[in-house]
Amino acid sequence: WKPPGSLPVGPLPRLPTWEWPGGGAPVGGIYTVLQTKAKITSDEWGENYFLMGPYLEQNVRTQVELIDPPHPAVRRTIDSMNAKGCKVYFGRWLIEGGPYVVLLDVGATAWSLDRWKTELWESCAIGVPWYDREANDAVLFGFLAAWFLGEFVAQCEEKPFVIGHFHEWLAGVGLILCRTRKLPVATIFTTHATLLGRYLCAGSVDFYNNLHAFNVDKEAGDRQIYHRYCMERAAVHCTHVFTTVSQITAVEAEHLLKRKPGEGLGKFSAMHEFQNLHAQSKAHIQEFVRGHFYGHLDFNLDKTLFFFIAGRYEFSNKGADIFLEALARLNYLLRVNGSQVTVVTFFIMPARTNNFNVESLKGQAVRKQLWDTANAVKEKFGKKLYESLLVGNLPDMNKMLDKEDFTMMKRAIFATQRHSFPPVCTHNMLDDSTDPVLNTIRRLGLFNSSADRVKVIFHPEFLSSTSPLLPVDYEEFVRGCHLGVFPSYYEPWGYTPAECTVMGIPSISTNLSGFGCFMEEHIADPSAYGIYILDRRFRALDDSCTQLTSFLYSFCQQSRRQRIIQRNRTERLSDLLDWKYLGRYYMSARHLALAKAFPDNFTYEPPEETAVSVRPPRSPIYPAPTLPPRNPAWLSQTRQPAATQSQGLNHVPKAPNPQINPCYPL
């Protein structure tokens, strides 16, 4: 690869780069990747970097500034398509870097769907059924994207060298058409999770041990996604450069999509001043907990730890099943060992609900009433104290509060009386009787009773600062927690633990997630930096659950000073997840695509460390620290009685109270 200044074919303005997210909803990992790497990509390509996606009016109103295209070729392309019945919009995405966006209204060209599906069948032998709306939208979007690129190349006065980067199967049709129509575009395809892999893992199969044995055509057909699988696989085999978001996904893609990719890693930039932000955000969560547990607030909030799991509601894939089992075991261990630590665990997973439940809203109303009562009494007390000091007398404490004040406070206290346990779920679930999280909680008996040292709160909705219940956004919530737990069985990259890392919050990941494998490769002792890697690949489920319980129990035994030291170490890893470091993989992919698509104009020699061939082993970037806190196993051994050290957490201490029934075995 030669730098832009020395290109033999012309300067940088002749190298427009287009990127297709392939989905409309602004949620999930792909959206996170594009949003967070926009700054560094814009710095690299300047005004020649464009994003393309479907037009969704609700999102455009709040996130996009519609403007006239400054590039004559782009303006002529949009005018030409709009004159032929399309609806194409141009603007700036209001995020850091402010990249240009081209938005295609797929609904406006739905009249062409049958004709385009026929062309897709005749050129690629891919048939799309009429009832799959998502696949039909992918066809519309793909044909519009290819139409736009073809028109753009035709409108350019000089031959451009175009790079098209397509994400996921939803954008794959556009890539396929670029190749079948022989458009002069260097193509890159990135999969963030294979379509078939996600379906297989959701079916509770032994996925990673049987990757080589799956009959992919039959498996896709049995799940009625064969047409989608064909679109994804065709895009993978048509593209000049194929990348994945992690090494674990690369192994999966090699077996399921039958092509070995290079590597392309995605993440976001680091953030600082995290310790003060942690304290501020934790205070907001504590306020919610005070209201939610009114009448049962018999635990010390200064000795309370906040754990959480968040993400798509895939009960087994995201590890919610093993996490709940580990929480039940942790609850038992904390109770029988007389621990003063209380753990409040949040499950942030959107599910089908019809509204907040009354008891949750009542708790916040009761908390606010107590706060207003305390403030009213404080004002009267302060005024009497002030007047007493003005005349030079010490206050008579017996006269500072009158009978009316005591009556007001008694009424407020009586309002906090509750004859039921605090609710586990903050919303009214539509499928309460079949919900896997709630059914598991019932089986394990985690009902938020006074005797429980582990409390569970299921919040089946995305967090928002405008919520009347928990008014914090996701970033603030993560900063206020002590530990993120993500024991996923299927996790191509793992944005949630990475978000924890850049905010200085320790997290638990697995060796089946791209993030966990990446950290194991770059850090000598990840757990010392607050990155606990759970073994879900080479251990049985019960053994993995025992290891997770060990991590949680050891974390609960840390002192406040140890947690602060650990957060400092965790935050140091944010540079490892900065786009300035990870962006080089995308840069290499773009340069390689140019060299493959235009071999007469570009050459590319991959650096040794990012070569697509056999990758040389690398020594960890972050060595093991020498100061505490050390790894969780060390903590648990040093704090357990001598009789249990040799047996670890597989040995359950005998309950001193015969009424305590541990929910221990799986």
What's the structural blueprint in terms of helices and strands?
Blueprint: E1 17-20, H1 28-45, E2 49-54, H2 57-63, E3 64-66, H3 72-83, E4 88-93, E5 100-104, H4 113-124, H5 133-155, E6 162-167, H6 172-180, E7 185-191, H7 195-202, H8 216-222, H9 226-238, E8 241-244, H10 247-256, E9 262-263, H11 274-292, E10 304-310, H12 320-336, E11 342-348, E12 353-356, H13 358-390, H14 397-400, H15 403-415, E13 427-429, H16 436-444, E14 454-459, H17 474-480, E15 483-485, H18 495-502, E16 507-510, H19 514-522, E17 531-534, H20 541-557, H21 560-572, H22 579-597, H23 632-639, H24 642-645
Parallel strand pairs: 1-2, 1-6, 2-5, 6-7, 7-8, 8-9, 10-11, 10-15, 11-14, 15-16, 16-17
Antiparallel strand pairs: 3-4, 4-5, 12-13
Helix pairs in contact: 3-5, 4-5, 5-6, 6-9, 11-13, 11-17, 12-16, 12-20, 13-15, 20-23
Protein name: Glycogen [starch] synthase
Catalytic activity: [(1->4)-alpha-D-glucosyl](n) + UDP-alpha-D-glucose = [(1->4)-alpha-D-glucosyl](n+1) + UDP + H(+)
Function: Transfers the glycosyl residue from UDP-Glc to the non-reducing end of alpha-1,4-glucan.
